[in-house]
């Protein structure tokens, strides 16, 4: 099942947690946190960040192992998790927007149902698009000088989270040719590093953990973020990257790109579904309430650590973390789009890439 695994033991950490539920005890047990992507992407870095903290806060301080089950843009792992049932509370599953989008679009390969799973933690993220140095020299805050270039992009698939950058670049009038079939966004970054791709995007964890060093070395030029949402649902600058323009800003500066109308509304709907609630941790069907509460309390303790905001900003970014009822509501928002947005995107996928979801 695994390609690679990372083991985290609470015993290796120096600080102690407050007592958790007395009737749930994971002493001596191993928690398997399954991620349906490769070990090189943002979801891997997200789980690797939270795993040792979770190990410290769960009752009995178990070992937490992050395992990877890549394939079909995460659909393989999600279909597998759908068949799992509660046994002893030692299975956790992590999804991303690339798992949510096929579900939202009615992809025929989807055999999983989000409402069957039990969310215990959800967190938002951002995304940064960047260019190779040649194109970066032409970027002036708009895409006007990029429209005569032909870009190559390593993609997991048009119905995955890559839908957001692919539609954004189309709205900007850019010629971006996706190479489909990579197993994770980290593989797309590797294509960019090898010169096989000339444009890329990474979620915040992947950008901070891998792409930022390329920017610092002059091998990549940041173009824009997708932005974040304020309390009125307006797109504003990403709090992790406040110096970078948002896609909305670049669109407003680019001839022919509109921040109103059908295309914009559809892009924004999928952005909201895919990024403010991008990473979700689930327990399987049938998990007892006391085990759910133990995980909820553990993740709550993690996000309330005195040093959490500082260490999170460095590794996963400055985004909200939801637990309990908040995680349930966030999951609902992340797995819902309007019929109009779905219809627009479905038609675009058919027209642009020959992807039929009927």
Automatic annotation (TrEMBL):
Task: State whether keyword Mitochondrion applies.
Answer: no
Q: Which UniProt keywords apply?
A: Signal
Q: Which InterPro entries match?
A: BUG, Bug_dom1
Position of the signal peptide: 1-22
Domain of life, source organism: Bacteria
Query: What protein family does this chain belong to?
Result: Belongs to the UPF0065 (bug) family.
Question: Which PANTHER family does the record cross-reference, listed alphabetically?
Answer: BLR1237 PROTEIN, TRICARBOXYLATE-BINDING PROTEIN
- Recorded protein name is Tricarboxylate transporter
**Species annotation:** Thioclava nitratireducens
